[in-house]
């Protein structure tokens, strides 16, 4: 971002002009003025004041498309602005996933297969390459292994104690040739050759140390290497991620007590937060979370989407939250949408009570590949959900395994409409959506419509 110093009275942007920058207030005070028609003619009015204390920013629409500015911004005092140009912003977006070869390597590691593309992109930036000559020892039984190695070129022969195969986190030690293990059942030590595109050492990312194994380069070898320290710094400990996912998977099994009872809708039309006992969080965003609640004085488990009022106000997302609520209400009759029972609020949260028992995000069941029948069912569920939305003129822009939720019967439910929009024309220009699955036309900012969801 470019630093811009301003003096009192300086015009930052002018109403009716064209803007191509997004501004963040570093210091000083700025006022937003717009000339509005009045019975006495055109009259300039102060609409808002921006200061650094309020974490103010303006001009975000200029990053998306070229449109005449609706107001002017003037400096009231001397101050500092940080500016990001549209062309730089789009360059950042387009280069975010430029490391496709590294992403493909990381995707091949079973332990990392559940990470999002955005997480893998950050991990890919932490990879470094190491070369080994023919016959060179990569590690021995005394040194041990300290990082994940993905073979980019050549072959690696790994010798290890048969007892290591009992560990659940050494999948890479199984032979690439299924007949090889059968020929080695007589010895204590086993040997396997890992080829280009395969990997070893994934257990190091979990903090585990394995003794009784060594590795030697067969020919010239090039490996992409990832240490646990680098991985933890960009994603967090794998052990914690695994524990969190396990809680999500296990909780519904323990909480299903009489939750299948028929719900008296009328009795839940005016529920307050004091009548709901928060049990567990299933999914969270920057200002909201979706979880399970127990209706007090009953044994009913329902789903609640609650918004943190403090975070909503701090991020200036009041209008977005209201828009999301209205979209959910308008689509509550769709098969993919749970029925909204009521809305409620207290000093800390605003909530939407849903007539469904959500279990987990779709991503939590994708740790291992789905069988063909399950994959077809999930794909068909997404297609059906999008068709329902599109028939009602709603653009979703949120198709991602991390956002799509499953209920206790295994059916897809849409409960996150942050990026949804009721289209009044064929095209919209807002750049938003899930980073993993944004369509090219969304990122390019040239306008997009319902086809962007596909």
Automatic annotation (TrEMBL):
Looking at the UniProt entry, the stretches that span the membrane are: none
Stretches for region Disordered? 171-191
What's the name of the protein? cGMP-dependent protein kinase
Q: Which GO terms describe its molecular function?
A: ATP binding; cAMP-dependent protein kinase activity
Gene Ontology terms: cellular component: cAMP-dependent protein kinase complex
Q: What UniProt keywords apply to this chain's record, in alphabetical order?
A: ATP-binding, Kinase, Nucleotide-binding, Serine/threonine-protein kinase, Transferase
| Keyword NADP on entry | no
Query: Which Pfam families does the protein's record reference?
Result: cNMP_binding (PF00027), Pkinase (PF00069)
Residue span(s) of domain Protein kinase: 276-454
Organism superkingdom:
Eukaryota
Q: Where is the Cyclic nucleotide-binding domain?
A: 1-94, 111-237
């Amino acid at each position: 971002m470019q630093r811009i110093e301003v003096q009192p009275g300086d015009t930052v942007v002018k109403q009716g002009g064209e803007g191509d920058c997004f501004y963040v207030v570093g210091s000083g005070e700025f006022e937003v003025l717009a000339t509005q028609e009045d019975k006495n003619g055109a009259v300039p009015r102060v609409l808002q004041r921006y200061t650094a204390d309020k974490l103010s920013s303006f001009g975000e629409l200029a990053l998306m498309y070229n449109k005449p500015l609706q107001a002017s911004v003037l400096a009231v005092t001397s101050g500092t602005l940080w500016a990001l140009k549209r062309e730089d912003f789009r360059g950042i977006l387009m280069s975010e996933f430029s490391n496709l070869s590294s992403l493909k390597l990381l995707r091949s590691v079973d332990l990392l297969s559940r990470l999002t593309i955005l997480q893998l992109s950050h991990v890919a930036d932490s990879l470094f390459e190491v070369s080994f000559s023919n016959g060179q020892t990569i590690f021995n039984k005394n040194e041990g292994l300290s990082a994940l190695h993905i073979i980019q070129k050549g072959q690696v022969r790994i010798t290890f104690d048969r007892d290591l195969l009992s560990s659940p986190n050494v999948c890479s030690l199984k032979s690439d040739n299924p007949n090889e293990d059968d020929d080695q059942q007589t010895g204590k030590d086993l040997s396997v050759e890992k080829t280009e595109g395969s990997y070893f050492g994934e257990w190091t990312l979990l903090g585990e140390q394995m003794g009784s194994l060594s590795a030697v380069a067969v020919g010239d070898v090039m490996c992409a290497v990832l240490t646990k320290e680098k991985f933890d710094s960009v994603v967090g400990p794998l052990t914690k991620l695994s524990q969190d996912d396990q809680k999500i998977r296990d909780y519904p099994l323990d909480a299903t007590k009489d939750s299948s009872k028929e719900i008296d809708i009328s009795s839940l039309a005016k529920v307050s937060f004091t009548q709901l006992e928060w049990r567990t969080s299933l999914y969270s965003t920057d200002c909201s979370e979706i979880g399970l609640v127990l209706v007090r004085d009953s044994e009913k488990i329902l789903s609640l989407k609650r918004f943190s009022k403090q975070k909503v106000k701090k991020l200036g997302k009041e209008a977005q939250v209201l828009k999301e609520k209205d979209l959910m209400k308008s689509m509550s009759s769709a098969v993919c949408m749970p029925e909204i029972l009521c809305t409620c609020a207290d000093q800390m949260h605003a909530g939407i009570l849903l007539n469904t028992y959500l279990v987990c995000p779709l991503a939590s069941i994708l740790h291992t590949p789905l069988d063909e029948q399950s994959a077809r069912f999930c794909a068909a569920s997404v297609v059906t959900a999008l068709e329902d939305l599109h028939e009602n003129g709603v653009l979703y822009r949120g198709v991602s395994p991390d956002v799509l939720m499953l209920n206790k019967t295994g059916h897809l439910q849409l409960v996150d409409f942050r990026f949804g929009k009721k289209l009044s024309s064929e095209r919209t220009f807002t750049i938003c959506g899930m980073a993993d699955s944004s369509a090219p036309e969304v990122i390019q900012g040239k306008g997009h419509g319902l086809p962007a969801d596909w």
